[in-house]
Write the C-alpha cells for this entry.
Amino acid sequence: GVLAIAVAVLYYFQFAVEQPEVRKNTVDAAAVDSVSSKLKIAYVNTDSLWDAYKLINDIQTDLEAERAKAERKVEQRTALLEKQLEQMAMELQTKMADFESKGRTMNETLRNMKMQELQDLQQNAQGFSLEADQEIAQLQQRLQGELLDKELKGTKQVQDNIKAFLKEYNQDYDFTYVLAYSSEAGGILLGNPALDITEDVLAGLNEIYDAEQAAKAEAEAKKK
C-alpha cells in the first residue's frame, strides 16, 4: 500500500534521477586564440560619429531646409489651384442662379444653349479638380524623389569620407577589421573600450572637413 509506494518513490530518486550535466563549452579556445593572435580589430561608435561629425550635421541641416522649401512649394501651388477652382465654382454658381431666375422666360434654343454652357462649366471644373489633384501628387512625388536623392548622395559622401580616412589612418595601425558599433543596431554586443578609435576618427574627419570649408570660403571670398 502506502509503504510500497514510498519505497518505490525512494528507489526512483535514488537510482533514476541523474545529476545534471555540466554544460560544456563548444568553443575551441585554442583555435580562437590562434586566429585572434593574427587579428587586429578596432571599432568606431557610429552613434557618436552621427552626433558629432560636422559634415553629417550640415547635411541634415541642408536636408531640413530643402524639406521645408519643398513643403512650402506644395502648399503654395495647392493654394493657387484651390483659388482657381473656387473661382470656377463661383462662376458656375452665378450662372446657375441666373439661369434659374431667367430660364422660364427663355426660348427653347436659348435655354438649351445656356444649359449646355452650364454643363460645360461643370465638366471643366471637375476636370480641373482632377488635374489639380494629379499635379499636386506628381509635385510631391518629384520633390520627395529629389530629397531622397540628396539624402542618398549625402550618405554616400559620409561613407566615402569615413572609408578614405580609415584607409589612411590604418597605415599606421594595420587593423584587420574596423567595425561599426551602434547601441541602436546592436551588431556588436560587447566591445573593449581599448579598441574604440572613435575619438581619433571623429577628430580627423572634422579636421579635414574644417579645412575643406575654410578653403571653400576663401575661394568664394576671392570671387567677390
